[in-house]
Structures
1.
Amino acid sequence: MFRRHVEEFRTGGQVKRRKAAKKAKERKADNMPKRNKKNFRPTKQGAGMTEAGVAAYRRKNPGSKLQTAVTGKVKKGSKDAKRRKSFCARSAGQMKKFPKAAKDPNSRLRQARRRWKC
């Protein structure tokens, strides 16, 4: 009897966790802007969000610090230069983790790195 009680307790806990995860997923989906040409850039143009997309995201998520890609010239040591360096380091890790994408010059990863000038 004790085992059955423990088993019911375990499965009940799993169900609650699944429901909570599902609700969290639904909340996250609602806070993203629509995936269209206005908000998101196609892969061939470097992937990522456009300025309008970032603005739409920030309207839906007050307090967000999301920014667009650093694409222009930047002074050495500036905030933008540091953001670029950080992104390039993170995406270099993705290149190692996903060698298939790293080899394909038209992958979203490679296009984004090109846009960020990595």
Note: Residues 1-30 form one domain.
2.
Amino acid sequence: MNFTSKNLKLVFGIIYLLILFLILYFLFSIIDIRDLTSYEFIKANKDVILKYKNQNFIFLTTSFFIFSVIWYLLLGFAGPILLFSGFVFGKWYGVLLAVIAASVGTTLLYFLAKIFFADLIKEKLEPKFSKLNAAFQKNELFYFALYRFIGGGGLPYGIQNILPVLFNISIKNYFIGTFFGSWPTMFITVSLGAGIEKYIDTNEKLSFLNIISSPDIYLPIIGFLLIIFLAYLVKKFFFETSQNQ
């Protein structure tokens, strides 16, 4: 049995899915989702987290990076990682860390998906997205960076990361395109996380009026809406035009 045989791919694919299930089960068994959505819980633990960061900066940065890479490998969505990164590490360092982790994690996922799940991905996704192939054949790196910029056209992040298997993008271009194309949207979400930390630091109670009147909150939201508008224009001008040619 050689490395590329279907049987070996199936075995590794099952192992991957089993690990994914076990990790998700472990996470949801030790984390209470109600706590993560509780303003009082977050405020009570904010200072503990930030104090730990200041005392163990390198360790926390390394741990967060490794966790993020694993999270993306397990088809995790980006939102929680980006918000946490901004909340704990601040806007500028947080977005740098988040973008690098996303670039590494999603590239590894793409590499594994090409080896073990290419046939399954093509079977499930090719009928819907094969028309995009014309765009990627023109300029692989440019169009993939645009693809990242527009958030994969609104696809769930895990699907965004494996869809390029259809277009056989090179590993190098996948990494570079993810790194540069992800900055705008990730910066906005990380900034929102940093804004939430500032809001919690200065407000004892949660108030919708105070939230929407805080520049640290409403500016990232405005930026997010602007990105959606720009993404619509990019998708219509570049991708739909390519499909019609």
Note: The CA atoms of residues 18 and 90 lie 35 Å apart.
3.
Amino acid sequence: MIQDYVVFVGVNIVLAWSVYVILLAGSLSFANGGFMAIGAYVSGVLTVKFGVPLVLAAPIAGVIAGTIGVLVGFPALRTRGIYLMLVTVGVVVSVKAVIESIDYVGGIQGFGGMVGTTEWHVVALVVLVGCGLWFLSKSPLQRILDAVREDELVAASLGINPVYVKLVCFGVGAFLAAVAGSFYAHYLIHVTPDQFGIVLSVFIVLYAVLGGTNNMWGPPIGATIMTLIPEFVLAADSIRNHHSRPASDPPRRFAGVSQRHHAGERHFDNFTVRRGEAGLKHRARKWMWSLNRF
């Protein structure tokens, strides 16, 4: 159980950082769910079909996803605002559709047989990415990113190429999302295209935004909160239901209540609904009659 929490929190932290890197240059992308899918499937093919170790397959998948991200980002980053977000949404939908049409990786049935991820892989990944972002925040590159994010025209007047900077950040974000997807897939053993839809991409953005994007520590906080709080709520609800169930009420799987009792309840509910509908129709007819008088 603890291992599950460590792995999923760590993967989500890296995913949040993948969005944070893109936000550093003033862009917002919903495509990281698609890049995560690319990393999951490419690394899965390398490990299952060709026997490549996971620690090599993950960065290879990241490089491939990063390259695709740069190729996609070159025309996409020339748009602004809502148009850029729509383009990145289209990337996620396209990646999912392409994966579903490839029988080599299982199509809509998914791809399985991937193993090898441990909590130490994820912890090491989080530490490496965190150290890299910390050194970036202390380097002159941070000021370049700040200039591009705040005002592209001023940055261009200083000799900075805003499109190039945005492309690099887009590629790095795709790389991180793909590596996180590689470890995620090799922990779940089996993945399907439906796991990498637009909803996942929205959650990845929320991880980064919830904790704040002013510094590198905000996205990990947001990812941790959004990962653990639902688990705590489910656990608390389970405990509450366990203690609130009457002693005479047996567990669901050993329920001894007769079917006639449930049938009677359903009959009473249906009768009540029918009476409610009849009353509603009667009031509607009276209201229409009153209007016709005028």
Note: Confidence is low (pLDDT under 50) at residues 248-294.
4.
Amino acid sequence: MSYETINPSLAAGFATARRETPAKNSTQPAVHSRPNSVPRWRRLLGAIVARYGLVLAFLAFWQVASTVGWVNAAVFPPLDVILSALWDGLAGGALLDDIAISLQRSGIAFAAAVAVGIPLGLFMGQVRLVEQALDPILQLFRQTSALALYPVFILLLGLGETSKVFVIFWATLFPILLSTIGGVKEVDRKLIEMARTYGAGSLAVFRRVVLPASVPAIFVGLRLSATTALLLLIAAEMIGANKGIGFQVMNAQYNFQIPLMFASILLLALLGLVANALLVLVQRNLCRWSQPNA
């Protein structure tokens, strides 16, 4: 016997409750789906502070410490004085010539390192016997500082442009080469076996599987090499050069033009940031499949 036959009014109450319960539950998601009330500019400002807050605090401390006198302003000039020296050098054209010459030296060396390092790394990563034969001597050269070999390069190539470009090439070659080898060796073997199962030949496997999977690792080496090229550029231009940003740093230090010296250092840092940003942009366009939010 059911409750409807015992008490008709009680049955009507249960029926009404069943009809009202889904209606109440259907209103619950609307409470959770309210739009975010935080303004967009606040979210953007919070992201900027979270990422660059420490850098901005450091620059503000530098400016205040140098202006108030907590540090010697002759050794650490205020940032506004450094920026003024940078602007004067750019507006006068002196630093523009140095930028052009430095970019030419580092660009030639970087392009040569890419042209040699990537094909050789792909070949060594694919052919195990070649890697075993060349790896010991490559490790020996990699552990030898390029700055320690710079006098040797000067003896062999002279004090002109060739030795400067070659020492930068030598230092930038190994990050690209080793990253390329590592990228090829880390390709999932199951992907290669699957491609061969579907009838792909060696060339097709390399072009369709190995090369695309190695691109992220190759770009890691490219970014490291771009930074290394700018670092070695300073050392190369400090010896036997009369133009370039590295020469400008040493020349300003010798003449006690401290704001100009810091301006040249700041210029090098900005060039490094621009080079890294360009490589990251190219990597994102070529490797959209490897991005977590793609």
Note: The radius of gyration is 31 Å.
